Amino acid sequence: MTEDHIHPHDHAYCHAHGIAHSHGHVHENQKAVVNRLARAIGHLEKVKKMVEDGEDCSEVLIQLAAVRSALNSTGKVILQDHMRHCMVDAISAGDHAAVEELCQAIEKFIK
Question: Average of pLDDT values for 39-54?
Fold first, then answer.
C-alpha cells in the first residue's frame, strides 16, 4: 500500500510504508526498528514498575541505562538507513534542504 503526501516544500511524494519522507521507498530496516522500539517500550514499562514498587535505585539506574542504550542503538539503525537511502535519494533529486534537516535532527539526537 502506498500513500501520497505533499512535502512542506510543495512537492508531492509517495511512500510505501506510511512514514512520510520526500522520496518514495521502503526502509529496509523498518521492521527491525519497530521491533527494537517495542522491546525498549517494554523495558521502560518494567523500569516504571520497578520505581512504583520501590525497587533498589541502583537496579533502576542499570535498567534505565539499558533502555537508553537500546534507544541509541535504534537511532543508529535509523540514521544509517536514512543516510544510505533517504539522503542519497534527496541529493540525487537536488533536495539540499534535506541535508540541513538531517544535521538539525542529528544535533537533537546526540544532545
Answer: 96
Q: Indicate the class that CATH gives domain 29-109.
A: mainly alpha
Residue 78 CA to residue 31 CA, distance in Å, equals 11
> Comparing C-alpha atoms, which of 50, 53, 71 is closest to residue 61?
50
- This model's pTM is above 0.85: no
pLDDT in tens, 54-104: 999 999 999 999 999 999 999 999 999 888 888 888 888 888 899 899 999
Quote the CA–CA distance of 20 and 98 in Å, as a whole number.
13
Residue 12, helix vs strand vs coil: strand
d(CA 97, CA 31): 27
> In whole angstroms, what is the distance from residue 18 CA to residue 5 CA?
10
HEC string of 59-110 equals HHHHHHHHHHHHHHHHHHHHHHHHHHHHHHHHHHCCCCHHHHHHHHHHHHHC
